[in-house]
Structures are given as structure tokens and as C-alpha cells.
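User: Okay, second chain of the day. Same drill as before: sequence in, C-alpha cells out.
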Amino acid sequence: MHLRLMLMPVSLVFALCLSSAGQAMAQADREITNSIGMKLVLIPKGTFTMGSPENEQVGELSRELDEPQHEVTISQDYYLGVYEVTQAQYKKVMGENPSSFQGANVAERDPQTGRVLKEIDSSNHPVEMVSWQDAVKFCQRLSELPEEKKAGRVYRLPTEAEWEYACRAGSKKAFSFGNGVKSLSDHAWYRENSNLQTHPVGEKKPNAWGLHDMHGNVGEWCSDWYGEYPIGAVTDPVGPREGSCRVHRGGSWFFPEAARCRSACRFGIIPPSGHIDDTGFRIALSPSGVPK
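Assistant: Same drill. C-alpha cells below.
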């Protein structure tokens, strides 16, 4: 034993050991990996300004009218998937892969003849062609896996407020990395660089909280119905009680305008049963295991 430890009272040595163990546990809990290999990172509770300022503009496009700024408090820590749910993960839980971008649709082809030059493994591409209902069912089935039940984990979709809070990662700019459009290609797959298809998750730079592809690749379902934001400061908003379309967030491989990839940009045009090839999802988890 180190001489300094030998000279310390036993109670103090024990306290120091407990403190070190606690710190190690806290460090480990900042990121978890579940039974099918999905990584989630702890998002700390806090207060932020949701929406965009009236003068926010990226390129030739100004912000949308459905983005009024308002103060939102997220009162509890929560976990969010580091990556969008992949085709392989979806198939492992649901037994099928509905994605458009697999097989021949992602193969490398001769630009002149169209002949397939190389097959591409799309298992690590984000799943798409999944409805909001499909995404919710995935969360339910994932929660029912034996190891997940044993760990007390109940998965869900993030609320729209949780999604934007995590996307911003403390940023008040148009993007999590600032306002510069030139940097978007370093962080996102969108029409400018996507070759009009999805790409493996995690290839672009993460935001300050370690989340990848928040600004592109595929749009992501949130739990909320789409509707007007509340007026004034709110805590843990969950959206309107009813509606016709569910919110999806984040840019995608499809959008040609960088402005559509902004942190505050919202989409509410797809009903819960709708499927589209540029929309997928990522999972959320409350530390207690109890969904909101």
C-alpha cells in the first residue's frame, strides 16, 4: 500500500475508496450500451431557449413561422441514442428491414452503364420507411427483451423539446456547431453531399454531447403531435393532446437547403401511419426506466 494511505485513518481511506468508486460509476453511467449493442449517452437536465430568433437565416431561407422562441426546462436527465436506429438493429428487434436504401438501391454502379460494380452492406445505415407507429412498436419490443427488462429499461421516442435540447447541446446558433453553412457537410448528410441516399451512422462529426447525425442522414420521429408551441415558459412539454401528424426533426439526405437542417427546424406533415424513405428515429430512455 502507498505510504500516504498507510498513514491515513482507516475511515478516511474507506471514504476515499467509496468516493473513487462513486466517481467511476458516475463516469460509466454517462454512456450505456444495451443488450443489442445500442449506445446511449446521458443528456443532463437544464433550461434552454427552444425555437429560433426572428432574424435567423441560413443561405437564402429564413426561419419558419412555427418556431417562436420560448423557454423550456427539461427537469430530468435522460438518455438518448448516440446514433439513429440502424437497419441491423431494427431487424434484430422487429424481424424485418423495411428500408428503401439496401441491396441494389445502395450498390455502387457504373455511371455510364448503370451496371453494379460493388455491393454495399447497408446494415449500419439508419432504418427508414418506418412509420411513427413502427418506431413506437420498436421501443416497446426492445423494452420487452429479457436483458432490458432485467435492467428495468423502458425505451421511448424523445419529446420534441428533448430532441431540440439534445441537438443544440448548449448552442444558441442555427446549428449545434454554429451558423456556418460551410461546416454543415462535416456534421451532416444532406443533398449537397449525400448522393441522394442514406449513409452509415456516425460517419460525420458529433455535437458537443456526443450525438451523431442530428442535422442530417434521416429525419427522426418525436413523440409529440405537431402543433403550435405553448406561450411562455414551460417545463417538460409533450406537445398537443391530439393532432393529425406527428413531429419529425433533423435534416435528411433529401433536403437541398441547409436551412432545413437547423436545430429549430420542425416538420409535421406525416401522419403516424405514414412511411417515407428519409425518416427514421433514435431512442430515448429515462434513467428511472419509466417513460414520461
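The helical segments are 3-7, 10-29, 87-94, 132-144, 146-151, 160-168, 184-187.

User: Thanks, on to the next one.
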